[in-house]
Fold this sequence. Notes:
The chain is of the alpha/beta class. Helix content is 42%, strand content 17%.
Amino acid sequence: MxxxxxxxxDLGGVFIDIHYxxxxxxxxxxxxxxxxxxxxxHHASDIFEQLETGKISEAEFYTAFRKETQSNLSDNExxxxxxxxxxxxxxxxxxxLKSINSxxxxxxxxxxxxxxxxxxxxxxxxxxxxxxxxxxFIKAYYSHIIGLRKPYPESFEYVLQDQKLNAAETLFIDDxxxxxxxxxxxxxxxxxxxxxxxxxxxxx
Length: 204
């Protein structure tokens, strides 16, 4: 195992709390009883994959969601329920990140979408005095912008090639096992952040 020179972090469940059950409950309260078949931490149906790879716009997503669920929900109802899963950023973890960025090249790679992106960028600005979350990293990669999402190996290859990183010298940290498995395929070193683990426990 080669020494680590670069670290690629996931976002949700790593720096910001994610509550999948709150979005499921919000949709259930709106009459969507099968939301768990459309999106969970471990599964994304076609319309969510399209949203998270930027293949459909926010407006197109709302239309597709109504069709998929045979509902008449408003755009705002869908948006509010979809954003319900977003928690808050951990100040301790952000400070920890700042403390290691002189020793490693730091990157972010997140499966997300324009709706969540707009919401969590605003949350970070509110919590950390109008600072930009993306400035914590050499570069932040978002699936809806690059058109690729985890756990597909080509998504990791994209980041590695874009930054000219050696996979064997690069650590990937994520809380979703499928993403860890995808990263291993391209030769990345990995840490799976299980539910009882925190970044603050890592010895890096």
